[in-house]
Design a protein that fits this description.
This protein has 125 residues and is mainly beta. Helix content is 0%, strand content 49%. Strands 2, 4, 5, 6, 9, 10 and 11 form a seven-stranded mixed beta sheet that branches. Strands 1-3-8-7 form a four-stranded antiparallel beta sheet, with no helix packed on it. The chain is globular and about 40 Å long.
Length: 125
């Protein structure tokens, strides 16, 4: 059974950094694409960054490109999202998701079928 647990969220000042972790259990990451999504109050869930089994295949939303970096450590069965230069508009619940494919899936909610519970990120002074 696919199980994903996010951690690393919290309160950070504008301009600060956080690293989110997505720990997988019940399966091995080698065969799965992973995505990070976020949902702010009153807004739809959006794809932030996704990574295929080929680590070179990465997607970033325009709003985070150059500030966020996604990476995966298959040996630790964990995917990370390094977030820098955080802005108040980055405030949201961040969730990771998985789908079993060696292709690069669209970084959309519909492209993933297993989800974690999410971790809150709040950017505020």
């Amino acid at each position: 059974q696919v199980h994903l647990v996010e951690s690393g969220g919290g309160l950070v000042q504008p301009g600060g950094s956080l690293r989110l972790s997505c720990a997988a259990s019940g399966f091995t990451l080698d065969d799965y694409a992973i995505g990070w999504f976020r949902q702010a109050p009153g807004k739809e869930r959006e794809g932030v960054s996704c990574i295929a089994t080929n680590e070179d295949a990465q997607y970033y939303a325009d709003s985070v490109r150059g500030r966020f970096t996604i990476s995966r450590d298959n040996a630790k069965n964990t995917v990370y999202l390094q977030m820098s230069s955080l802005k108040p508009e980055d405030t949201a619940v961040y969730s990771c998701a998985a789908t079993r494919t060696h292709l690069a899936p669209p970084c959309t909610v519909a492209g993933f079928d297993s989800w974690g519970q999410g971790t809150q990120v709040t950017v505020s002074s």
